[in-house]
Amino acid sequence: MPSPPTLITTSRPLPAEFVVPGARIQTGPERGFPSTQAFADFAKGSAAIVTWVSERVDAQMLDAIGPQLKIVANFAVGYDNIDTDACAARNIWVTNTPDAVTEATADCALMLMLAAARKLAHADNFVRSGEWEKFGILGPADMIGMPLENKTLLLVGAGRIAKATALRSLAWNMNLLYVARNPKPDFETAPLNAKRVTLEEGLKQADFVSIHTPLTKETHHLIGPAQLALMKPTAVLVNTARGPVVDEAALAEALASECIFAAGLDVFENEPAVQTALKKLDNVVLTPHFGSANVSSRTQMTRLCARNVQAVLEGRDPPTPIVRPQAPRAR
Ligand code: 8YV
C-alpha cells in the first residue's frame, strides 16, 4: 500500500506560492490558533510546521506534534518565538526567511523615521477629525517637525536590515553610527562610512535611532529609562525589530514628558496589545507589526519557506537553517 503523503501544517493560510510537491498541506485559521495547545493538536502527525512570529514553539508543543516532526520553518527572519534548544535536542531543523524581509522592513524603518519626524500621526488625525477646519490654515510656526537631511542616524545592530536602512538614509546625506558586538567592514567603508560606537555614545549623539537587533536575553529592554535619558530632546526613536528590545512603559513616559521628540513603532512588547499610555500620545506613530508586509517580500518569504520545508522533507540541507540536527535522523 502506498504511504500517505507527508503532512505539512501551516499555522495560517499562506500565499499561493507555498508549494511543496508531493506533500499534503493543512492550514490553520486565518487569525491563527487561540493557543499553543490548539496549534499542537491540529498539527499532530506533521513532518513540518510553518510558524508565524506570534506563535511560541516550545518543548511541549514539539512533543505533542510527535517524533516525526523534522522541521519548524519560521515565516520571519526573527525566531525568538522558537525554543531553538528544544528543537536541537529533538534533532529538528529550524529555518527562517532572511533576505526576503530586508527591503520591506528597511522601507518601514524609513517610513517611521519620516512619519515620526514630521508628526504624521498628529497631522493625519488633525485633518480627519475636522480639527483643521476649525483651526484654519497653518501658520509659519505650526506643526513643525525635524529634518533628516545631514542628521546623525544610530543603527542599533548591524545586520541586513540595518544595512538596507543605512543605504536608504544616504538619500538624506545622513551621518551614520552603528552599535555591534564586532566591527563591520561593510558598514565602515564607502558608501556608508559608518562609525562604530558604544550604545551610550551613540544615543547621546544621534538625531535618529533605529533598532535592528534580534530579541535575546541580552537585548531585552536594551533601551530603558537610562538609555532614553541619554537621547537628545529633539531625537526620534524607531523600532522595527522586536518590541521587548525597548521598555515600552519607559518609552511612553519619555514621549509624554518630551524627553525625546517622537517615536515610530512597528513592534510592541505584548502584541497585539499596545500600552494605553502610548496610544494616547500624538508624538508616536504606531503600525501593527507589518514591516515585511509588501507583495514582493511576502512572495519571497513564502517561496523561501517552501524551499526550506521541501529540502528537509527530501533529506537535503535547507537554504536558510538556524538549527541543524546533530544526530542523523532515523528515516
Ligand atoms: C514579520 C518579522 O514576520 O521577519 C520578521 O522577523 O518580524 C516580520 O517579517 C511580519 O512583519 C509580521 O507581519
Describe this structure in words.
- This protein folds into two domains: 124 residues, NAD(P)-binding Rossmann-like Domain (Rossmann fold, 3-Layer(aba) Sandwich); 185 residues, NAD(P)-binding Rossmann-like Domain (Rossmann fold, 3-Layer(aba) Sandwich), CATH 3.40.50.
- The mean pLDDT is 96.
- 41% of the residues are buried.
- The radius of gyration is 22 Å and the shape is globular.
- It has a seven-stranded parallel sheet with strand order 8-7-6-9-10-11-12, sandwiched between helices. The protein has a six-stranded mixed sheet with strand order 2-1-3-4-5-13.
- Strand 7, helix 8 and strand 8 form a beta-alpha-beta unit.
- Helix 1 runs parallel beside helix 2 and helix 4 crosses helix 7.
- By secondary structure, the chain is α/β, with parallel strands linked by helices.
- The chain has 13 helices and 13 strands.
- Bound molecules: 2-keto-D-gluconic acid.
- The site of 2-keto-D-gluconic acid has 10 residues, from loops.
